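Lab notebook: predicted structure, single chain.

Context: the supervisor wants predicted structures on file for every construct in the current expression panel, including those that have not yet been purified. This is the next one on the list. No modifications to the sequence; it matches the entry in the shared construct table.
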Amino acid sequence: FSWLEDLKLVCQQSCAEFRVIVVCNECPTISFHHPAVSYLEVDFLPTDLSFPAKGLDKGRRIVAGLAAARDFSPTHIAIVDADDCVSKRLAGFVKQHPESEGWFFDRGYLYKARSPSIYLRRKAFHKRCGTSHVLRYSLLEFPQKWSENKPKLNQFYNEHQHISNRLAQRGINLQSLPFIGAICIVENGENIYQKSFQQLHHVKPDPISRLKDWHNFRRLTPEICQEFGLYRLDEISADV
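Prediction complete. Output recorded below exactly as produced.
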């Protein structure tokens, strides 16, 4: 599973009123094109290969994308990691609620690519996965130019687990998304933190907790595949 596969899945929104900004160091040479996709080439790299440096680099790319999004006058934005999928209902749902301050994804799926089963995380998904918020654009802080480096903002957007609480401190109250908005695909080599399924799963080791948790595993149904585009992974891999 790669960023290109993820990009194709994101572009399957049922509502056509959305834009995707890919922040990259070099515009890729690929056969896939979509009218909603644009590329923002940046010239910065992590200062070193440590996790803190990689995290700040990721945050800076997010901030650059937010600043560049101004050209499209969005009502809301969503930050999507390169190894995650989003529901095709997101854009349509946001269009129906243009005045909302935003949403966090309390529930979400964890998935190992090409596994026959999927795991439902029933709470605090937004504390574990970076693709877990939709935010009203006019309420956000970002620089006037995407090339400006703002370390505090970089840290804010990289630390997704704190976004809803920090916004609440500013009087911005996000709602829980009323449907499952994202799938976090694990152990695929795309995420800078390389968290395993066990790290994101996080269940107590006692037998009763494990037995209760077993009910959160379910078959990867055609309905789930259709909503998140997973049914096209084999096709996508073949035509990259």
